[in-house]
Design brief:
The radius of gyration is 18 Å and the shape is globular. A hairpin with a 2-residue loop joins strand 3 and strand 4. It has a three-stranded antiparallel beta sheet with strand order 5-7-6, with no helix packed on it. A two-stranded antiparallel ribbon has the order 1-2. The chain is α+β, with helices and mostly antiparallel strands.
């Protein structure tokens, strides 16, 4: 089985799914470390979507920076940033070179929240067999 982001990797196919007893390993390859996928069912049915989704697509494209772009200002609330910063600090302490990789490290990671990344990353509307609408996201490690 594979995830929707399947592509060639080093040593194994990125996006391979490895079933195990009592667990599923959705990311067997570490070369895309930092990428994440999430699917959320919305409270919409397919019949509630407009016939033409281009307006929705353009609205998403205006709000979500892609590639190396980031938000011009921090969009996340302090109640979101504080817990993330607390979890980030032990990583930075262990790997101080991470901070030197980016100018204005703190502002950069904060402005990257809510961005997509580049390459094979995507935002997608999906329908399931019950005609429920889902939004699926594959976002990148952002370098």
């Amino acid at each position: 089985a594979v995830m929707p982001d399947v592509h060639v990797g080093k040593g194994a196919t990125v996006g391979s799914v490895i079933p195990t007893k009592h667990a599923i390993i959705p990311a067997a390859v570490g070369v895309d470390i930092g990428c994440g996928m999430n699917a959320i069912r919305l409270n919409l049915k397919s019949s509630q979507l407009p016939d033409n989704l281009s307006g929705l697509r353009h609205a998403i494209e205006r709000k979500v920076p892609v590639g190396f772009d980031l938000h011009k200002q921090v969009k996340a609330k302090a109640s979101t940033l504080t817990p993330l910063d607390k979890r980030l600090q032990p990583i930075i302490s262990k790997h101080p070179g991470l901070v030197r990789m980016l100018r204005k490290f703190d502002m950069t990671w904060q402005k990257q929240l809510g961005t997509l990344g580049g390459g094979n990353h995507f935002i997608e509307l999906c329908l399931d067999e019950n005609q429920d609408v889902w939004i699926m996201l594959h976002s990148g490690s952002r370098g």
